[in-house]
Amino acid sequence: MDPYKTLREETYEANCQLPRLGLVLFTFGNVSAVDRDRAVFGIKPSGVPYENLHPQDIVIMDYDARVVDGTMRPSSDTKTHALLYKSWENIGGITHTHSTYAVAWAQAGLDIPIFGTTHADHTHQPIPCASVLTDAMIEGDYEHETGHQIMNCFQDKGLSNQEMEMILLQNHGPFTWGKDAAKSVYNAAVLEEIARMAFLTLQINPNTHPLKDSLRLKHYERKHGKNAYYGQGC
Amino acid sequence: MDPYKTLREETYEANCQLPRLGLVLFTFGNVSAVDRDRAVFGIKPSGVPYENLHPQDIVIMDYDARVVDGTMRPSSDTKTHALLYKSWENIGGITHTHSTYAVAWAQAGLDIPIFGTTHADHTHQPIPCASVLTDAMIEGDYEHETGHQIMNCFQDKGLSNQEMEMILLQNHGPFTWGKDAAKSVYNAAVLEEIARMAFLTLQINPNTHPLKDSLRLKHYERKHGKNAYYGQGC
Amino acid sequence: MDPYKTLREETYEANCQLPRLGLVLFTFGNVSAVDRDRAVFGIKPSGVPYENLHPQDIVIMDYDARVVDGTMRPSSDTKTHALLYKSWENIGGITHTHSTYAVAWAQAGLDIPIFGTTHADHTHQPIPCASVLTDAMIEGDYEHETGHQIMNCFQDKGLSNQEMEMILLQNHGPFTWGKDAAKSVYNAAVLEEIARMAFLTLQINPNTHPLKDSLRLKHYERKHGKNAYYGQGC
Amino acid sequence: MDPYKTLREETYEANCQLPRLGLVLFTFGNVSAVDRDRAVFGIKPSGVPYENLHPQDIVIMDYDARVVDGTMRPSSDTKTHALLYKSWENIGGITHTHSTYAVAWAQAGLDIPIFGTTHADHTHQPIPCASVLTDAMIEGDYEHETGHQIMNCFQDKGLSNQEMEMILLQNHGPFTWGKDAAKSVYNAAVLEEIARMAFLTLQINPNTHPLKDSLRLKHYERKHGKNAYYGQGC
């Protein structure tokens, strides 16, 4: 009996959502899910096509990115996931993709401005684009340093990982997270759509204005505030 | 026996069209249908994914946005629907989405110009973009005021809700309506396509001219005028 | 026994290709097929959704746009088809759509330049955009005059309807034709792709040059010339 | 018993991937696979729709583009494939498509800059765009000269066909290759996505910078270098 069966299944299911949501070409993405009680997380094995993936292929890792269980090599981005789980104890799942529009903004090196309520329904700030890593970081422990760059960006901008569950890494692509793996995948799809809408908005009117404060906060609060009235309250 | 069974089924079917037509990501949209005899409307419950939706989940509301029947919390946009049904007695269904190209125009804060016959087949005016609500409206009864903003826009521009069955709300997205819920969904899909074509048109030729009056009216009249010859006359 | 059974089936099958090829939203398109021996053509009935269409719904018309057989009202664009069949005796099928990128070029009011071999494989000229009809034409016998406008454009530009099987009508959309209805639908899909590629090309490099003559003619001739070596020669 | 059965099946399977990956409209593409022991390659017959293709239709050719086995006419691009197999002994499969975004860059006549890690995961250089052939080349043995133009471009730019498995031909479209036919198709899909991302990047920020050297090499090396740690090492 596999003690990580549930964690593997959660991780497997969340990974399978990526191609269904149109967020990945071939193997360009990975999702992990954490088990806080055991202090381990499950992650997709590296380079395995989604259609060949099975729950038992999920590799179980600790927060220092050491393999705890599993026979396959974990995602090459595993150390980024590990550092985020170690540093941010409130998150339950992480998704990394190379989805088209989010990557385009990352390659453009720009934060995604907040132009509308679709964005504000999910976060009341622009989506940050963390600067490209320094040469020393890239030539050092690259994927671990990628995790540091994410946290540095959040610290510099005074962002909360609960109010902002997504980031772009310049010249690379998006990372998203959430209370569990499924929520991190949801956020990856939302980010892709926000990125697409913002691109189109600027093509139509390069001089348009960001959402004003009252509407920005209203939409965020009606969904996430203490008097939220969106959803079924469960 | 549920007295609202037919209304719930109409509302349910119309909501299910949204993902089929590619107009919604996750739960980003809602459709309502009215029963004028009973003075109630059915609307999608808030935050329920379309694939989990059942006819019995539809919430029955009166025109003052009070729940008449149903156990779930209605769409957070319910008060907008309610005010439109109360004010515009000739409409039978309302759709709200965050479809990509319509949102992009709303975020750009611009009316959609009338560039061709695809547009004129459905309305002979530009698609209006209502200004963003004032802070007082946003901080007041927000969704109710959203309904007022729609009606204010139609009044200011002298538009008829029968000749123009769609609107954009600046920084938010589209609302569409029609003689029944199915027609409001049809209009939501037409608006998205018109928005996409207008975006592409301006990318190809920013100096192109709007449709001239004779052609604008010809296409509208052949489909909607008293001598219309489009369709099977039923 | 229906004497037009074969013609109706050909027309029906060709119409059904439009939604499969992503060329139509709802009922925004129509295909006709001609029977030269009987001097009649079959055409889609007006306003009928493709999923509800049956072969027996196809309306049989003569070249003066009079109904010969059938109980439904024919496409509102029927007179355009009729004039083309009457004037161009070598064509066997006609397709009209409001496909997105072709409409965008029509709304931009521009010919589609010939930028590459995908275009030259099908025609060695830019795709013409016929000017918008005069007010007199629009207020007269509009759909009949639309056919005249197509032929006027071909005459003015010295184009052959065999070497160029497609046209845009300014502020409206594309018409395509071919040796039979299936070929006219094929051309509608090719035009949409050429229109999309040309749009993207100009976005990437507004100063790019059209295809040079030698390559333009080479690709056209290897597929359509007397020494053509593309295809299986049947 | 067909001595080319395995080669035909490999070629057939790889061709069938093109429509599944959205890389071709109608017959706009072809894949070949080589058998180095027999010094022959299999290639798609010309002008045959993918849905009508059978393994036995694959035409077997030698490196001088002479038919060795098969009853159908081979792809009109066969001489380009033949020259590449003859000149580059390390490649096992070749794909040619007219995929939309790759063609748009080819029609724009520009190399695709390296803007991000999606690109660097596959090659550490911009994707080259070979100049349009001279009139003499076009009017001579055109498809053979197309192969020469590809090799000239690689020689001029000092590129290795193992580090760069893709090219654009100006005003035409992409060719890709790899260790086998499946890898060449994979590369065709990767190129299309890189082309799309680069287009969007420049639309969002025309002044963005290419990927810096350290990150460009890091991503390429972690996947392809001697200490690569991407994938399962098999």
Automatic annotation (TrEMBL), chains A, B, C, D:
Hydrolase is among the record's keywords: no
Enzyme class: isomerase
GO molecular function, one term: metal ion binding
Record keywords, A-Z: Carbohydrate metabolism, Isomerase, Metal-binding, Zinc
Any coiled-coil regions, as ranges: none
UniProt-listed Enzyme Commission number(s): 5.1.3.4
Cofactor(s) the record lists: Zn(2+)
Name of a matching Pfam family: Aldolase_II
UniProt cross-references to InterPro entries, sorted A to Z: Aldolase_class_II_sugar_metab, Aldolase_II/adducin_N, Aldolase_II/adducin_N_sf
Catalysed reactions, as listed in the record: L-ribulose 5-phosphate = D-xylulose 5-phosphate
GO annotation, cellular component aspect: cytosol
Gene Ontology biological-process entries: pentose catabolic process
Domain of life: Bacteria
Claim: Cell division is one of the keywords in the record: no
Class II aldolase/adducin N-terminal domain: residues covered: 9-199
NCBIfam families: PRK08193.1
Family classification: Belongs to the aldolase class II family. AraD/FucA subfamily.
PANTHER family: FUCULOSE PHOSPHATE ALDOLASE, L-RIBULOSE-5-PHOSPHATE 4-EPIMERASE SGBE
Name this protein carries in UniProt: L-ribulose-5-phosphate 4-epimerase
